[in-house]
Fold O-acyltransferase.
Amino acid sequence: MEQRIVTVEQHVLNNPSENVKDVNKQEMEKPKKNLMRDIIFSELQEQMQEIRQDILELVNNRMNDMVSEVTNRIASNELKDLVDSDKYSNRTPNLGIDTVRAGFAKFPVVLYVWSLMKISVLGVYAAFYCWATRRLQYSPKSFTRKIWDYGWLAGIVLYQTLFFILPTRAVLDNDLPLASSMIILMEQIRLVMKTHAFVRSVAPRFLSYKPHTDTSTPQLPDFSQYLYFLFVPTLIYQDRYPRAKKIRWNIVLTNFVEVLTIIFFVALLYERLLYPNYREFGKQPVELGTLTLNILGSMLPGILMFLCGFYLLLHCWMNAFAELLRFADKMFYKDWWNSICYSAYYRTWNIVVHDWLYTYIYKDMYEILTPRNKTLSVCMVFAISSIIHEYILSFSIRFFYPVLLLLFGVVGLTVVFVLKSAGNVFLWFSLSVGNGVLVSLYCMEYFARINCPSTRDDFWDLVIPRTWTCIFK
């Protein structure tokens, strides 16, 4: 992730569509480092306070119609071929139904765990209210106030730690399948980020307040504002957000239908392109040529699943809830597909998470923990992001195989620093190869653990790849 610090002149040249005309002559004469910081902060705030359309809605309608027609024809032809194939092989057309049913099994347990997580997060507001209101009653320099502050700080750290442990324990104890596990774990991370954003954004109002001054007493956000923030598709807390005038129910329905369609399409990709190639993996020795063919054969389903995941989460799901909640800022991503370098790709691929990482990780590292050290701040962002991605995947598939951690946290970070402008073709080629490697290696490990019996029954069996100990012995 590249640091978003630019001079005024660079900002105007690189962002001609943004309004920076309000920067006056006096601001131009400020010290450079302060001016940079002000521009960064004001840019982020402006992004959160203006009404912005989803970027795919801004594409020319004729292009949308053309792409839609081509996609529908491809999908209909593929569907016809699949039905005919099942018909000639005397099988009932499946269309991914069995995979979806298996992946989302035990869904009532998912709803129960989700409800408990949501209730506990609502309790954060009550705890924060208690800390903030009582704190104002103590003398600013009293020992009691210090004990009060540090005690509640330890409390929020303990709460976040337990919030990591308990839902994960529920996933393991109930033996939830892949999709159900990912729902719980992704929602867990989302609520952790929301809780941190709320506390980190509101607490400074009370910490910086000094009585007997002209500064007014800080006001705690209403519970309705906190509740709205928990559901709205953003991770940056603000007391108020841009709101649409009405709910467009046709868009809500369309997006939810597309969510279901994509789920079945991904299941179909797995059943037709991945499962037949990997289901016998681990029963016989594997040659290097077979591994290469597996990776090459997984590139197409890998990049298709990657695009489906992006479209499902960042377009359909978030736009559906944005419409339901009349949330007007729909810039959940930018045109990352046109990026010519990975630094631009990481900044535009997921605006929602990027802004959270920038505001609460990068900015705090750069300004407080490691002052003015861009490299350490960027490394911390990549480390946290890659670890969380690997955490979700590892507990969902029930084994630790840090391919994603290495590709994202090591290779991705290296590419950001080394290749400043590799070109759009290289970006797409590397994404295709990378997703092919990810899908292939994780599928091989998954089926190796099914087809090859374990030689040990301890913690190390979850960490040591079965493909190494079984296939290549």
